[in-house]
Structures are given as C-alpha cells and as structure tokens.
Write a structure and sequence with these properties.
about 140 residues, 5 helices, mainly alpha
C-alpha cells in the first residue's frame, strides 16, 4: 500500500501543477492577469512547488485514512476539498497582495484538479473501476 500512496501523491502533485499552470496561463491571456512579481521566478516556482507537495500529501493521506468513508464517494471528497479551497481563495483575495482575478483562476483550477486527483487517488488506493474492489 505504501507504494500506492507514494504513486498517488506523485500523480496528484503532477495533476495539481499541470492544471493550475494551464488554468492560470489561460486566465491570464483572457483577463490580462499578471503573474506575481516575487524576487525571482525561481523563488515563486519553488514556493508553489512546496505548497503543492503539502496539498498533494494531505489530499492523498486524508483519502487513504478515510477510504472507508470516501472510497466510493470520491466526488464528494473532491467537492469538500474544493469548497474548503473556495473560502481560502476568496479569503486571500481580501488581502491586497492577492486579487479577485487570481482567486477566480484558483477556483476554476481547483474545480478541475480536485475531481481528477480524487478519481485517480481512488483508483490507486481503493482499486476497481469506480472504487469497487469486488468485496
């Protein structure tokens, strides 16, 4: 099972990164949203990576420990994470360093990557087509 947890965490991290960058890039093209201006792009990318590693690890481990509840309710699991994140995004938007545009892009990205990551995590942790193990 440890290998499946590690694999699910890595796949979730990749999903979170790819979707987030695709959505923010597209959102920037459509709305003119400017990327943050940290001291260096490397610092920004490292910061995002560290945050996404933490989110991915928590996402997979909470699913793993709650698999008896969420194993076949992966969409509910994704929705709960998305709901939590919506409040986080708009809570950040209250501060001057984060815009409503960034919050909207975050909500859109999370609406895509949480269900996708939950489905893949369910498949890797619980198994089966939709979480049914044949028990």
């Amino acid at each position: 099972m440890n290998g499946r947890i590690i694999l699910a965490t890595i796949v979730t991290l990749v999903i979170f990164h790819i979707v987030a960058f695709a959505v923010y890039g597209t959102w920037s093209m459509l709305t003119g949203l400017q990327p943050p201006t940290p001291d260096s792009p490397g610092t920004f990318l490292l910061s995002v990576f560290v945050q996404k590693v933490g989110h991915s690890l928590a996402f997979v481990l909470i699913f793993y420990f709650g698999r008896s509840v969420f194993g076949q309710r992966w969409l509910l699991y994704a929705f709960l994470w998305w709901l939590f994140s919506v409040f986080g995004e708009f809570g950040e938007a209250i501060m001057p360093a984060y815009s409503v545009q960034e919050a909207c892009a975050g909500v859109i990205a999370e609406a895509i990557y949480f269900p996708l990551a939950a489905f893949i995590t369910m498949r890797l942790i619980v198994g089966g087509r939709f979480g049914h193990t044949g028990d």
